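We modelled the chain as a single entity of 224 amino acids. Its sequence is:
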Amino acid sequence: MGISDSPTHSSGQPLRLGILLSGRGSNFLAIDRSIREGRLSGAEIAVVISNVADAPGLAAARDLGLNHALFISRGRPRAEHDADVLAGLRAHRVDLVCLAGYMRLLSPEFIAAYRNRILNIHPSLLPAFPGLDAQTQAFDYGVKIAGCTVHFVDEHLDHGVIVLQRAIPVLETDDAHSLADRILQEEHVAYSEAIARVAGGEYQIIGRSYVKTSSREGLNPSAF
């Protein structure tokens, strides 16, 4: 897999993001702030899609004047629901799908349609602590370093190629909740930085590695 597998969009045009969420959408809102405040200039939010009718993130998208759509997943076959979501993404000409607290596993057909064009953020330093309640898993295990990972999505849970990670120390004063809160602050930085890297297009995927192909220095995370 190489640079030809990266998101393609018209030269000089922002990368069009499709945000999928099921809940409050805090990472979606952080991405939106980065775009609106000019820190993430190579991307725009094309549509926000939720599978939950009362998701606060969907209401926030509506209030922000963003394109938004609801495809309720409860009681529907996964492949059927995913086909509707894919149609919504294509209708809005989405280049890159960003999962932002989307509490569903994607079907193989969905992943194939956006191969190496789906990002997810996970609140641990993968491959450690995949799955639910990763922060609590890390705290209970007694790790001294925790953090978050932005990765491409493949057919396996929390498994795809890692774009970037941000780490923080676990403090003596932490409990599982305070650790989760501090990891979330790192997530808000990491997701925008990862999108900027993907939007730049100057990378290859070699085996399990994201490899920069530009000699330029990496983005300054303090900008986010």
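As a brief sanity check on the tokenised model: Residues 215-220 have pLDDT under 50 and may be disordered. The CA atoms of residues 171 and 178 lie 9 Å apart.
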